Automatic annotation (TrEMBL):
<keyword id="KW-0408">Iron</keyword>
<keyword id="KW-0349">Heme</keyword>
<comment type="function">
    <text>Catalyzes the reduction of sulfite to sulfide, a step in the biosynthesis of sulfur-containing amino acids and cofactors.</text>
</comment>
<dbReference type="InterPro" id="IPR006066">
    <property type="entry name" value="NO2/SO3_Rdtase_FeS/sirohaem_BS"/>
</dbReference>
<feature type="domain" description="Nitrite/sulphite reductase 4Fe-4S">
    <location>
        <begin position="173"/>
        <end position="326"/>
    </location>
</feature>
<keyword id="KW-0883">Thioether bond</keyword>
<feature type="domain" description="Nitrite/Sulfite reductase ferredoxin-like">
    <location>
        <begin position="350"/>
        <end position="415"/>
    </location>
</feature>
<dbReference type="GO" id="GO:0020037">
    <property type="term" value="F:heme binding"/>
</dbReference>
<dbReference type="InterPro" id="IPR006067">
    <property type="entry name" value="NO2/SO3_Rdtase_4Fe4S_dom"/>
</dbReference>
<keyword id="KW-0479">Metal-binding</keyword>
<comment type="similarity">
    <text>Belongs to the nitrite and sulfite reductase 4Fe-4S domain family.</text>
</comment>
<dbReference type="GO" id="GO:0051539">
    <property type="term" value="F:4 iron, 4 sulfur cluster binding"/>
</dbReference>
<keyword id="KW-0560">Oxidoreductase</keyword>
<dbReference type="InterPro" id="IPR051329">
    <property type="entry name" value="NIR_SIR_4Fe-4S"/>
</dbReference>
<dbReference type="Pfam" id="PF01077">
    <property type="entry name" value="NIR_SIR"/>
</dbReference>
<feature type="domain" description="Nitrite/Sulfite reductase ferredoxin-like">
    <location>
        <begin position="102"/>
        <end position="165"/>
    </location>
</feature>
<protein>
    <recommendedName>
        <fullName>assimilatory sulfite reductase (ferredoxin)</fullName>
        <ecNumber>1.8.7.1</ecNumber>
    </recommendedName>
</protein>
């Protein structure tokens, strides 16, 4: 394991002085004086410490007792963000002060590492939603579940209930090691290369809620999957471990670093290194250590690991990882193979390696509610062994269903409008939170995504190609617009009468997988929200008419 220093800048290990990036606020080159307000807040008090104040002061004295640097800073370390005040339109997003957009209610994110849930856990998630969150519960594209309308007074009781069943909101947001994505079919899929679950558990045990790693330059996203379907969007994580067969050493993981989307998107790079299952947590520790020590802290829009990786290149990054953190060389290894399927969401009925089945189903754009989650838990309990998974595509899976129980489960799910054989539009459309709750949003996304699905199902009933349609409420990339076939970036646009209305900048032809790349921004192509189905129908009809054999949408 790497020689990891403590969280205190003064205790950071002495590092090579590169000089070149001294101005970027890197601890490793001696930059311990905070260069911006965010860094100052983190230096003043560790984000994890806010929990005590929430439990002993804020939940008792109410919203207005919350210190502003906790409200807009440290609360995130426990998964809490203020949500957008209702009724403020997208035109005001950029011109109002943050406090003018703040509601007195919170979004609360529950981290679900590896997407692993039991029926007992899901039942509690559903109960909390109904009792404390006005029934809200969204499945995110990072396998989490998000509540809205949370009152600060209720947070300690919500934690008590979640933690009693082994769930938590620890470091679900903030400049921290966020949820660890994992293959939703880890341990059960017939075609699995390696089960990454023990590595995810070891990373959780060693790094989550650990104050040595709770002050990172920015968020740190990770993924571990041994599925040949490449089902965790590994290309856009800060560190990712992707299942491969080493010709001499057998199953293990190919190491990727430096991916991330947002306003400066980058696909991660391979370090050419093969990591056995038992070394994954050590290597994770080395990469997060590099990020903490060498990551840029001066400007928040240059603070993700991808900027350091871009400046160093993969060779230097691997050398520093091996020499300074692992203190041993890594083995060279092969790249992952191209998946045979384009869908990576595990929707449908599939045989497990033990002969039982897993059943993946599609809500609409990740939106469910507490009552539905409770019913899903009941169905899973009646039909499976009690295990479920969330996916990185805003879907869910019930595991361990005996063959003779599959039809009954499918009927029960479909009765809840949870499709096991969805249209490509239901299956391929994702939407971020949008203006309903997000303070950065410019346009509405969830209801609009659902409407687009309905319209396309009605207009193009014969269309049966995989297609991804990702709807974002602002220029950030929470719904991964740059890697969608049709990526829609929310902004205000002019309608035919010259009025400013909600609309989208269109990006076409992005992809994940080994053909990963960013969609092209179609110059000048902006669509008003009310014409979205017309536009997508035109694009897909033209594609259907003109495509050649084997050509996929992005070609
Ligand atoms: Fe909010 Fe923008 Fe992220 Fe959507 S993409 S959730 S609008 S920050």
């Amino acid at each position: 394991m790497a020689d990891i220093a403590s969280n205190s800048p003064s205790a950071a290990p002495p590092r090579r002085k590169t000089g070149r990036h001294r101005g970027e606020g890197q601890w490793a080159v001696g930059h311990f004086t905070p260069l911006n307000g965010n860094e100052q807040v983190k230096k003043d008090d560790d984000g994890l410490n806010v929990r005590t104040r929430i439990e002993t002061i804020y939940s008792k004295a109410g919203f207005h007792s919350i210190d502003p640097s906790d409200l807009r800073g440290r609360m995130r370390w426990w998964g809490l963000y203020t949500q957008r005040k209702p009724g403020i339109d997208g035109g005001k997003t950029a011109v109002l002060e943050p406090e003018e957009l703040d509601d007195e209610f919170f979004m609360l994110r529950v981290r679900i590492d590896g997407g692993r849930l039991t029926t007992a856990q899901l039942r509690v998630v559903g109960e909390v939603s109904q009792e404390f969150a006005r029934g809200t519960a969204d499945i995110t594209d990072r396998q989490n579940i998000q509540y809205h309308w949370i009152r600060i007074e209720d947070v300690p009781e919500i934690w008590r209930r979640l933690e009693a069943v082994g769930l938590s909101t620890t470091e679900a947001c903030g400049d921290t090691p966020r949820v660890i994505l994992g293959s939703p079919v880890a341990g059960i899929a017939e075609d699995e290369i390696v089960d990454g679950t023990p590595a995810i558990e070891e990373i959780q045990r060693r790094f989550i809620g650990n104050k040595d790693f709770s002050n990172l330059p920015r968020k740190f996203k990770s993924a571990v999957s041994g599925s040949p379907l490449l089902d965790v969007a590994h290309e856009i994580n800060d560190v990712a471990f992707v299942g491969v067969h080493h010709p001499e050493h057998g199953p293990g993981f190919d190491l990727w670093v430096g991916g991330g989307l947002s306003t400066n998107p980058r696909i991660g790079v391979r370090l050419g290194a093969w990591v056995p299952l038992e070394d994954v947590a050590d290597v994770y520790g080395g990469v997060i250590g590099i990020f903490r020590d060498y990551g840029y802290r001066r400007l928040r829009n240059r603070a993700r690991l991808k900027f350091l990786v871009a400046d160093w290149g993969p060779e230097r990054f691997r050398r520093v990882l091996e020499d300074e953190y692992l203190r041993r060389p890594l083995l060279d290894g092969p790249a992952p193979e191209q998946p045979v399927e384009r869908w990576r969401d595990h929707v449908g009925v599939h045989r497990q390696k033990d002969g039982r089945f897993y059943v993946g189903f599609a809500p609409r754009v990740g939106r469910v509610d507490g009552a539905t989650l409770t019913k899903i838990a009941e169905l899973a309990g009646e039909h499976g062994s009690g295990r479920l998974r969330t996916t990185a595509e805003q879907k869910m899976i019930v595991l361990d269903v005996p063959g003779e129980r599959v039809d009954s489960l499918v009927a029960g799910l479909e009765a809840l409008d949870l499709r096991v054989s969805p249209s490509p539009f239901r299956r391929g459309t994702m939407a971020c939170t949008g203006i309903e709750f997000c303070k950065l949003a410019i346009v509405e996304t969830k209801a609009r995504g659902s409407w687009v699905i309905d319209e396309l199902e009605r207009r193009l009933p014969e269309f049966d190609e995989p297609v991804t349609i990702n709807v974002n409420g602002c220029p950030n990339a929470c719904a991964r617009i740059q890697v969608a076939d049709i990526g829609l970036k929310g902004q205000l646009v002019l309608d035919d009468d010259g009025r400013q209305v909600e609309g989208f900048q269109v990006h076409l032809g992005g992809a994940l997988g080994l053909e990963a790349g960013f969609g092209r921004k179609v110059r000048g192509l902006k669509v008003t929200a009310d014409r979205l189905p017309d536009y997508i129908e035109r694009v897909l009809t033209r594609y259907s008419e003109q495509r050649e054999d084997g050509e996929r949408f992005a070609a």
